[in-house]
Amino acid sequence: MRFRLQIQRSDPDSGKTRLQLYELEARREATLLDCLEQIKDEQDGTLAFRRSCREGICGSCAVRVDGRTALACRTPASEIVAGGRIPVITPIGNLPVVRDLVVEMEPMWQKMRAVEPFLRPTAGASGDGREAVITPALLEAVRKEALCINCGACVSECDAMTVSPEFLGPHALAKAWRLVGDPRDDANRARLKGLSGEHGIWECTRCYLCNERCPKGVDPRDAIAKLGAEAFAAGIVRDRGARHAKWFVTSARTTGWLRESELVVKTLGIAVSLTKIPLALRLFRRGKAPLPLPRHRAADLAPARELHRIVTGQDRRGALGIVQGERVLERIELVRAPEQPASEEEL
Amino acid sequence: MRRIAYYKGCLAELSARELDSSTRVLAPKLGLDLIELKSVTCCGAGDIQTAEPDYALHLNARILSEAERAGLDTILTVCNVCTLNLRQAAWQLRDDQLRARVNENLERAGAAPYSGGVEVTHLLWLIARGEGLARLKEIALKKLDGLRVAPFYGCQLLRPSKLMGFEDPDRPSSLEAVIEACGGETVDYPAKTLCCGFPILLAREETALGELIQPVEQAMEAGADVMVTPCPLCHLSLDAWQKSLERARGEKLGLPIFHLSQMIALAAGLEPARLELSRHVVPMGPLLARLTSPLGDGR
Q1: Is the ipTM here above 0.90?
Q2: CB contact under 8 A, B51 and A343
Q3: Architecture of domain B124-292 in CATH?
């Protein structure tokens, strides 16, 4: 089968990039990685890309295919050229390009190191000087996060990282949950406090691009939510994002609907809220800043209050409230609508 | 008329009241009899899902069970975030064990249990395909002829696609189908599937505004007269925070933003006054004048 690919080439000295068209004859079952290797072997030894295991384990070969990040070794080439399309292969995003499809991973490793991705057990956790014993059931809460292969697909498209490069991001935060959720680790409180900083848990905008792209089903956004839930359970709720979330909980159990007009003060505190007066006036003029009184109450409120009392007394507090539903969600078969070829303009 | 449970969510009751009123005005035209769910609360907005996820699940279970109690098998939403949260809960509650536990709590709290099987959909999904689209084409008498409309999807109606699943999350086409059925001209731009920043607009304003500028700027560069969104949270950032973008960048933007229901209602010839367009922060007046001018061709 004949394949045509446009691959982004870059000149490491000038930093300039261009698209280069390659044509090759390969097996119908070839993966994108097979094609890249064949091009390098037969046509152009200067083409640079990373690869190692060729079977979705090492996490080396993530690239963007028409903007969508994927592992080259898990991408059937026939799918991306379907309908005569010439796919555009570019390096993953949010990391500096070294050359062609190779990016500098160091910024990602720095963030990974920042979350201290190793267990910190208290001295003699097992009591007998041996390694701590763990059962599969106890590891259930971190099973998904343990599947991460560090490919950077989540980092590549994280919308918050694009805007705020200091954001710890989906990869490091999922790693952090891998530790916080592990019963052998005893540094939870310190970890959660650290992760609740300016560029931590609460800077995620919940765009779900990380969940969408992860080739291993780690669902980093869900891991970030687990960290949030554990921070709440531990009473670490000083960050603006946590206060914002807390106000939704308070609203639900007191008036049912969000008490929207008080949200700004509850999130930002009184002093910072004063700087928002022009915004408030703008909204008020249009009827968009409802007065706090009379309160907007849902009908039949008692069950919402009572439910809060009941569930907070049960054993699914914190991240377990998310973990309990994960197995069910994993059973969803991926039902995707057929992809539509991108228009010429997009290319 | 199709009887359908209507869950309007927090914003359509308060700051985005115009979304609720325009949806109600439009519904009969679309053949929908909206049965509003009353004994319900906030869906959690993703915030309770992060802070107290087990509570969030129970709140959503109660909303689903209220639809069931009203004898309805489908909940209609007009918000991306409500759609995601309700669908996520509905999926999780397919598990017999989990549902049994949640139901026990619901009953203890004096709410009806949920037996499973309620479908959750969004207004956009109802009208973007099949019968819904056919009906839309019948009622949209091309009132938007020539208007250049930029679709903005927002995140949570597309992703996570395993929970949403209506269309390709990277190359969606439902809003485009609706814009065209309404006689508008679709303006394409890359950020239409990216984030408006709303969830962190208060907590991390700078990051949120950095996200918000992408669709606004790109749509304007592509020549959009107006943008349309199926989500009141996206609407609030795009419309109400546009001034903050203007101040941060020192330039005038002024891109008007439609709620999906408003755009369709206008195309269907409904009285603009009933759509509460005057509640928007970016003025809709000039656009409306152009659309309704007897002399103009819509432009």
Answers
A1: yes
A2: no
A3: 3-Layer(aba) Sandwich (3.40)
Cβ neighbours of A288 in B, within 8 Å:
15-16, 236, 240, 279, 281
User: Distance from A72 to chain B by nearest Cα, in Å?
Assistant: 18
pTM of the model as a whole = 0.94
Contacts of B50 in chain A (CB under 8 A): 224-225, 228-229, 232, 245
With a CB cutoff of 8 Å and minimum separation 6, the contacts of B138 are none
Residues 209-248 of A with CB under 8 A from B: 209, 211-212, 219, 221, 224-225, 228-229, 232, 239-248
Chain B residues with CB-CB distance to A312 below 8 A? 52, 55
Tokens standing for A53?
A: 């295991």
Q: Is A38 on the interface with B (CB under 8 A)?
A: no
Cβ of B281 within 8 Å of Cβ of A203? The answer is no
* DSSP-derived secondary structure letter, B111: -
CB contact at 8 A, A186 and A106: no
Contact B45 A248 (CB under 8 A): yes
Alpha helix (H) residue ranges in chain B: 17-26, 47-51, 53-69, 80-92, 96-108, 123-127, 130-139, 161-164, 174-181, 205-221, 232-235, 242-249, 260-267, 285-292
Query: What Rg, from alpha-carbon coordinates, does chain B have?
Result: 19
pLDDT in tens, B1-21: 999 999 999 999 888 999 999
- Which residue of A321, A324, A334 is in closest CB contact with B162? A334
Inter-chain residue contact B47 with A324, CB threshold 8 Å: no
Between strands B2-7 and B32-36, the pairing is parallel
Q: How far is CA A188 from CA A193, A197, A220, A313, B64, in A?
A: 8, 15, 19, 22, 35
Q: What are the residue ranges in chain A where pLDDT is below 50?
A: 334-347
pLDDT in the model for residue B299: 41
Cβ distance A334 to B240 less than 8 Å, yes or no, reads no
Distance from CA of A295 to the nearest CA of B (A): 11
In 3D space, the residue among A193, A207, A197 whose CA is nearest the CA of residue A163 turns out to be A207
B258 or A334, greater pLDDT: B258
A334–B contact, CB cutoff 8 A: yes
What CATH number should be reported for the domain whose range is B2-123? 1.20.1050.140
Instruction: Sketch out chain A's domains with CATH numbers.
Output: 2-103 (3.10.20.30), 105-259+295-327 (1.10.1060.10)
The neighbouring-strand residues paired with A62 are A71
**Which residues in chain B have their CB less than 8 angstroms from residue A303's CB?**
39, 62, 106, 109-111
* Residue spans in chain B of domains classed CATH 3.40.50.11810: 124-292
